[in-house]
Amino acid sequence: MALTNQDGQPLQPAFNRARRIERDISEMLGLVKGVLGDGAVTTSEAELLRDWIESHPDARSTWPINRIHERLELIFEDGRVDEGERIELADLLQSIVGGQAGIIVGSDAASELPVDKPTPAMRWNGSIFVFTGKFAYGPRKACEGEVVRLGGRCSSTITKSTGYVIIGTFGSRDWIHTSFGRKIEKAVKYRDSGCDLSIVSEDQWAAALPPL
Q: CA–CA separation, 165 vs 202, rounded Å?
């Protein structure tokens, strides 16, 4: 017999957990922007983030909260938080919400956290590119046209064959979170699993374009 909730609807544990994690990520992004409002992270704010993550176990292993969790564990390993650690934590948090632009303009900035550093070598001929977000370079079709000109291919879907995911400078209103969306989440998952996939910012991509 299927389990039901108090309203008689069937329980869907996996679906409910996924929704809870999405809600937690949105809450964490709001918390991060609040912490960065004055441009610095205090010890008490670092403790606040640590305590929040500890009280949300489902989200703890989910990108990008897992990156914050890993950094906080290192910071608190010796029981104290020094100035250098606070600065490094602030840099990490800023990269998640799109740097200073993400704090100032909110949903208009894309996350910098997943971007490969240093910039990977760009192999154009035969490589598959996926663009996500909005681009200062121009409309997405114009960006895709540059890739095709150089012998590459473009796709709207990320697969294990994807070579490069290019993140626009500005976020998209279609993204599930203010600074990143499903494509970025999927790209991080594939890259972390060992796929030969590079995540590149618009600035990195544009700088690699050879002249006409």
A: 10
- How far apart (Å, rounded) are the C-alpha atoms in residues 165 and 83? 35
Radius of gyration of the chain (CA): 19
The domain boundary, picked from 44, 79, 96, lies at 96
Give the span between the Cα atoms of 149 and 59, in whole angstroms: 42
Do the Cβ atoms of 163 and 123 come closer than 8 Å? yes
pTM score over 0.70: no
**Containing structural domain, residue 55:** 13-96
Instruction: Write out pLDDT tens, residues 124-149.
Output: 999 999 999 888 888 899 999 999 99
Neighbours of 129 (CB within 10 A): 24
- Which of 110, 70, 139, 84 lies closest to 199, judged by CA? 110
How far CA 103 is from CA of 23, 38, 148, in Å, comes to 20, 10, 35
